[in-house]
Amino acid sequence: MTISHDKRFPNESDEYRSARNELLEAERELRRNVESVAELRRRLPPGGKLTQDYVFESLQGEVLLSSLFGAHDSLILYNFMFAPGKDPCPMCTSLLDSLDGAVRHLEQQVSFAVVAKAPLSEVSAFAVNRGWRHLRLLSSGGNDYNRDYHGETSQGQWPMLNVFRRRGNEIRHTWGSELMFTKADPGQNQRHVDLLWPLWNLLDLTPGGRGDNWYPRREYQDTDSP
Questions:
Q1: Are residues 124 and 35 in the same domain?
Q2: What is the number of structural domains in the chain?
Q3: Boundaries of domain holding 40
Q4: Are 214 and 189 in contact (CB under 8 A)?
Q5: What pTM did the predictor assign?
Q6: Do strands 61-64 and 170-176 pair parallel, antiparallel, or not at all (unpaired)?
Q7: pLDDT band at residue 187, thresholds of 50, 70 and 90?
Q8: Parallel, antiparallel, or unpaired for β 161-167 and 170-176?
Q9: Would you say residue 149 lies in a domain?
Q10: CATH at 135
């Protein structure tokens, strides 16, 4: 077995070190696999052309999808499960809590926006209450974007993530989080956006992992914290 470094932790046993070295090799292989899959994603042929320039509601007024790119050639849109008059999805909320802090870094490279079916007034009020300061929030209540790009069906909303690319005057869809629609492995959900969700990745580092039946909530009482 390859030993990749000479660092040791206080009082660790030989048994622990042997098992840790074996895990380290698996972690290196996982890193390589992640890079390999990312390369396959980048090498996808061009996806379908945008058939209409969707009009969204934003805090600045109506905006076209084509205008969301700004100075970048790539645009990421996340479908926030938030229907008119309904409570927003706790899982989506947890993810967006994390992305609100990361989006200023992200937008040095690409454009990013959050799309909800609920009216912008409801989405904005929830964002203020949540303390979000940096996410670009949009309402798709007046267009068919959610339905066309699988963020909505007759059964309700879905947390879809889609990527678009602009070349000149042409916009094409390049990738969507389709893993959501595949059959989950035993003991898992589809985990279609877990790679960009710090919560789950951090829990995966711990002995207890994600737990058997735990999901984040929208709100916590002070007594919930240790």
A1: no
A2: 2
A3: 16-45
A4: no
A5: 0.91
A6: unpaired
A7: confident
A8: antiparallel
A9: yes
A10: 3.40.30.10
